[in-house]
């Protein structure tokens, strides 16, 4: 994915807006809110901005081990899908175009295996 996707969606400020919207949705979802108990939400938001910026081709290196970062959470496939749905809605409702949403969500989908508990 080229950096142009990052620029097309509005750069860092647009990504921050998407992340704020995303976490508002996730933390309002009773199926998901428990995953965030005791978490440093400011740190998680910063990681999410880096992650989305990276998968959108922005000027960010994001190299977290997704399995290691999520293994202790026992995330189900249904919950992964719910989080992905919230992200897709946040992208769309913050003006990200269809092609760019699809490009970002395909990167997210590729992470399902290392994130979902076996």
UniProtKB/TrEMBL annotation:
Record keywords: Transferase included?
Answer: no
Q: Which GO molecular function annotations are given, in alphabetical order?
A: heme binding; metal ion binding; oxygen binding
Report the InterPro entries cross-referenced here: Globin-like_sf, Globin/Proto, Hemoglobin_trunc, Hemoglobin_trunc_I
Q: Does the keyword Iron apply?
A: yes
Cited Pfam families: Bac_globin
**What UniProt keywords apply to this chain's record, in alphabetical order?**
Heme, Iron, Metal-binding, Transport
Family indicated by similarity? Belongs to the truncated hemoglobin family. Group I subfamily.
Recorded protein name is Hemoglobin
């Amino acid at each position: 994915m080229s950096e142009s996707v990052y620029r097309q969606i509005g750069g860092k400020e647009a990504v921050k807006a998407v992340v704020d919207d995303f976490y508002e949705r996730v933390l309002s979802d009773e199926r998901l809110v428990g995953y965030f108990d005791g978490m440093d939400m400011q740190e998680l938001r910063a990681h999410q901005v880096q992650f989305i910026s990276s998968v959108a081709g922005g000027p960010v290196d994001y190299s977290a081990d997704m399995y290691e970062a999520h293994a202790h959470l026992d995330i189900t496939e249904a919950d992964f899908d719910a989080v992905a749905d919230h992200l897709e809605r946040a992208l769309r409702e913050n003006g990200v175009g269809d092609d760019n949403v699809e490009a970002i969500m395909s990167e997210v989908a590729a992470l399902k295996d290392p994130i979902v508990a076996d």
